[in-house]
Amino acid sequence: TGKKAIITGVGSEIGIGRAIARTFAAYGADLVIADMDEEKIVARAKEIAEESGRELGTHIIPVRCDVRSNEDQDALVQTAMDAFGRIDILVNNAGVVLSNDQLIVDTDEDEFDRVDTDYKAVFFLSQRVAKIMIEQEQGNIINLASVVARVASTRMAAYASAKAAVLQLTRCMAFEWARFNIRVN
Q1: Catalytic residue among 21, 159, 160, 184
Q2: What is the C-alpha separation between 160 and 149, in angstroms, rounded?
Q3: pLDDT exceeds cutoff 80 at 77
């Protein structure tokens, strides 16, 4: 109750991000929710505001954001700071699986770069938010990974290795930022 959170990847009608945002709102958190699909994130924001009784635009704020974009990340963080004056929680939920079920030998660089959403975006959005949390001397960052981060799977090497990187990144963040009262899971 009363926490200020950014949650990425909330646009899907059936996704994990939607469920996280609905739960946070039900418990009284103020949210900036993000997705790269503007129409979907606006729809989710309306749905969550109506369902939770929280005011759209005040307590539930939708932002179109491609987390792979530095400019979009800056705008997302600035929106949260302008609206709430602090960020208590960051949930790095946005992610993609490669568009084709591909073997390693068939994965080209353009396709591989799509998993920047799964790792690079988590790294740099967390970095931006951690700078604020360090000043606040508190915060919580939650990074979503996948079972394929620990269990090898054919035709998912780029995605699986990005999610494995998120696991190790999470450990490094937790170790580095614990002294600032920032919990990373």
Answers
A1: 159
A2: 5
A3: yes
